[in-house]
Amino acid sequence: MTPQDMESRIVRYGDLQPCKTAFIDAHTPGSDQKENFTIIGGGVSESPDQHVHISIEHGFNIGAAGQPPKCRNSLHDHRTAEAFFVLSGRWRFFWGRWGTAGEVVLEEGDIFNIPTGVFRGFENIGTDYGMIMAILGGDDAGGGVMWAPQVIEEAADHGLVLAETGKLYDTKKGEALPDGVKPMPLMTDEELAKRGEPTTAEVLPNHVARYWDMVAMADKTPCKVIGETGLLKDKPGFEVDFITRASATDTKHSHKRPSVLMPVKGHWRVEWDGGSVTLAPGDTISVPENLAHCAVPSMTGEAAMYHIVGTDDPAGLTWQG
């Protein structure tokens, strides 16, 4: 495969196209400055304005959220697994019906594997614009987002209405629900009672992995981060490995499914039969199935990278077991 053939499977950080109207809280004060990015797969955006960089099915979706300081993403849930790693900045994740059940602060390189069945939100608590990268299970990412009732109610106060079809309508622009289409119903008290309220102590051991711990564990071979035998044991429809300079190898290998490489630190040279390319933090490359390739740091200094590949396990953990 030539470098020109691979070009359409590479998304540079500087070429990412943001959407500021992706979700129902796009007009809500405190959330109205966030940017949503869909890098691989259709994602879960509720807006037709969302640009999809790579539409090839991988068995999972890759997206990102960029936010200035003090900007937050409102409480929501997905029907499939959701994992985040911090590319830049300092982020507070919180969860529960009202976002008060527990919280954790993540720094650059840290990863958080969030099961379904619990509302979650996050905010940039750093001093500069920050970016977190997201992995969502499934090609259709479970059919959209489920919002905490208060998020939908507050959004309506600021002109945005979510239809039962999952599409957003902006009344500030004169838009209205089409005839025969109802608003997205709020979750009932019975449905809300079934949702998890885990404490921070319950979440940290099995769902959060710290960058420097993974660096230490990847001293000879890549650290298995998410997977049946991973540091964060789960079967969410994808596996995540963490690779450092110490565990990188120039021996080429291939996968039966498309795989994704996402540098966190340093510059990486990805080589394959027919070409090579150098990636920087924030860049993403989709490697075709059965293509022999390898990835090695191209410069001295700190170097770390996440590697994602799909599996046949679409469910993932929930707080209900």
TrEMBL record:
Organism: Salibaculum griseiflavum
Domain of life: Bacteria
Protein name: Cupin
InterPro entries membership: Cupin_2, RmlC-like_jellyroll, RmlC_Cupin_sf
Domain spans labelled Cupin type-2: 69-132
